[in-house]
Design goal:
- The structure is a single chain.
- By secondary structure, this protein is α+β, with helices and mostly antiparallel strands.
- The protein starts with a helix and ends in a 5-residue tail after the last helix.
- It contains 3 helices and 4 strands.
- α2 runs parallel beside α3.
- It has a single domain, classed as Nucleotidyltransferase, domain 5 (2-Layer Sandwich).
Length: 120
């Protein structure tokens, strides 16, 4: 029987492989969540650099949310990331949820980024 970390790693690799096959030159929106914070960044894999990044640990968001690890924090991070990405000229991305299910905080971040103007 496989351990939890091995299964999580398989899901992450499977997700990343699908995105790289389809994405081409389109940047990807990568999400990482911990128990305390949620992080997101728009990455250009062709050039190998980060175009925009936001997290619930940013000073800009500290006073706007009740906790840094909840759904309200994910919504704020999604809006901030979409705003930063649009300033860099990025309007379309592929969503990379990593090994996380598209549920809860990950879904809230994606929905708020869509609402703020990112297309994926």
């Amino acid at each position: 029987m496989l351990k939890t970390n091995k299964l999580r790693e398989r899901r992450r690799i499977r997700q990343r492989t699908r995105i790289k096959r389809v994405a081409g030159k389109t940047p990807r929106l990568s999400v990482f969540r911990s128990n305390k914070y949620i992080y997101a960044q728009v990455v250009d894999d062709a050039a190998g650099n980060t175009l925009a990044a936001a997290s619930s640990a940013d000073d800009v968001l500290q006073g706007k949310m009740k906790s840094t690890g909840g759904v309200d924090a994910a919504v704020a991070v999604g809006e901030l990331l979409a705003e930063k990405a649009q300033k860099k000229g990025v309007s379309e991305v592929y969503f990379d949820r990593g090994s996380y299910l598209f549920h809860g905080r990950v879904k809230a971040l994606a929905d708020s980024a869509r609402k703020a103007g990112l297309k994926f």
